[in-house]
Amino acid sequence: MSATGKLQPEPYETARAFCITSAFWMVVATFMGLLGATELIAPDIVRIGWLHFGRIRPVHVNLVLFGFVTPGLLGAVFYFVPRLLRTELYSERLGLVTAGFWNIALVAAVSTLLAGATQGREYAEMIWPVDLLVVMVFILVFINLIMTVARRREPLLYVSVWYACAAIALTGATYVLGNVVWVPDTGSLVGIPDAILLWFYGHNIFGLLLTPLSLGVAYYVIPKACRNPLYSHTLSLVGFWSLFVVYTHIGTHHLLQVPVPTWLKVISIVDSIGMVIPVMVVLINLWYTAQGRLGEIHADVGAKFVFTGTIMYFFASIQGSMMALPQVQRVTHFNNWVVGHAHIGVLAFSGMIALGGLYFVLPRIAGRPLHSRLLADLQYWLVLLGSAGFAVVLTIVGLIQGQAWLNGETVYRVLPSLYPYYVLRASLGAILFSSAVIGFYNVFRTLYGQRGAAA
After folding, report:
1. Quick check: helix, strand or coil at residue 81?
2. What counts of helices (H) and strands (E) characterise the chain?
3. In this predicted model, which residue has the larger pLDDT, 437 or 48?
4. pLDDT tens-digit profile of 428-452?
5. How far apart are CA 441 and CA 260, in angstroms?
6. Which of 46, 70, 84, 431 is deepest in the core (most CB within 10 A)?
7. CA distance 293 to 288
8. How confident is the model at residue 48 (pLDDT cuts 50, 70, 90)?
9. Do the Cβ atoms of 374 and 452 come closer than 8 Å?
């Protein structure tokens, strides 16, 4: 309570709100993924029109992106930005309002997509009113962060602050462009220009939102957990600027088979290969920081999640660079190989780091230990098993599909050979859903359980 008698939010209330938001929507997102995977092996299992695969899939994708991973990363961001700047968050009240509107936007997205109201564009399915809500919450987040930066007592801006502010500012702008919000009726342009704009946005949701937020969390957690200074501040800035210079141009590598201008295809391929520069700069910096300190990483479950996420970042990025080559795309495009790659990038890399950041800050914002370290470790192994399993299974399925179609085989003759892998895929989905339920219980009890019980 303030001196005027008015109730004031406690410190880190915004971080708490985004942590519980992430944990809750991870349950919903993984359930939708499990239901969609089940319908691939038993299409008639659900006879409710608004739960068929064509509606469940965009709900699953958008909830993973905006319901689970992004709020989890923001939960850590709203904790470490004030600490790195040696000041309080500009407004915890604004942060709580933002978290509230964020959840309203998610509920609106789920409701409209299940009702069949969609723009029908990948990663940009949400209709115009929901788009406006999403843009509004990004603006509110940015105002809170940039005003905190303006009021800082620390003159040096650590790289994690750079990543967090840039991710929110650039994503707000690219979301407006990619969802064509100036055309409310359709949310799209016409023909090839629309495809180019869509994939500029679609790939940058990962490259300008999830990746910088994830790297910002990793740059904070790993040195703190290792009790070791960052290996190189200079390398951290090289990685920051090279990411934003190179990544923004690579979305067109999704359109190599369509009549997009050749010069744009060449730029996307070259920059896709060039992504090895920011990726390896970041990983060398983080891994050298942790050199000889893996015991400290293993001792902190949050740091263990984060460090594993950096390893997955290596695999996702190397695979992504390879997939941009036209000869490789002849086999890998338009099949489950791409779905497997997305699971490595979003779940195994960004999702792992989101969970790691969440578990790292939870004891600090709750003022007590985790409710259960055992449950957190169990969730770690379940997520690792599920994400690695998805990568292997969907890569195999993609190669079967790609080689069959390349050799002129018809689709229906390929489907029986995929069925066992789809069963395994659904089983892995059940593992991930179980991990989400365990995680939500652990997070909820840590934040809202009886104080002192865990100690």
Report:
1. helix
2. 18, 0
3. 437
4. 999 999 999 999 999 999 999 865 4
5. 48
6. 70
7. 10
8. confident
9. no
Residue environment code for 402-427, b if the CB has 16+ CB neighbours within 10 A, otherwise e: bebbeeeeeeeebeeebeebbbbbbe
Q: What is the rounded average pLDDT of the residues 41-64?
A: 91
Apex 14 CA angle, 11 and 17, nearest 5: 125
Q: Model confidence at 115, in pLDDT bands (50, 70, 90)?
A: very high
The pLDDT value recorded for residue 177 is: 93
CA angle in degrees (0–180, nearest 5) for 76-77-78: 95
Tokens of 400: 């079967």
Task: Return the pLDDT at 376.
Answer: 97
CA-based nearest residue to 113, from 175, 171, 57: 57
Q: Tell me, rounded to whole angstroms, the distance of Cα 316 from its chain centroid.
A: 13
Fill in the amino acid letter for 104: I
Task: Give CA–CA dist 434/381, Å, rounded.
Answer: 11
Show the tokens assigned to 169.
Answer: 């500012």
pLDDT tens digits, one per residue of 129-150: 999 999 999 999 999 999 999 9
- Nearest CA to 167 among 243, 223, 109, 220? 243
Structure confidence at residue 126 as a pLDDT band (50, 70, 90) = very high
- One-letter amino acid at 215 equals L
- Domains, the chain, ordered by start: 13-448 (1.20.210.10)
Q: Given a cut of 90, is residue 46 above it in pLDDT?
A: no
355, 433, 435: which is closest to 29 by C-alpha?
433
| Residues present in the chain in total | 455
Q: Is the pLDDT of residue 3 over 50?
A: no
User: Which DSSP string corresponds to 95-158?
Assistant: HHHHHHHHHHHHHHHHHHHHTT-----TT--S-HHHHHHHHHHHHHHHHHHHHHHHT-S-SS--
SS3 396: helix
Cβ atoms 37, 386 nearer than 8 A? no
Residue 194 phi/psi, 5° resolution?
A: -70, -40
Taking phi first (over 0 means left), then psi (-120 to 50 degrees means alpha), and beta for anything else, what does residue 351 get? Answer: alpha
Residue 45 makes CB contacts below 8 A (sequence gap 6+) with 38, 39
- Take residue 221 and report the two structure tokens written for it: 């957690």
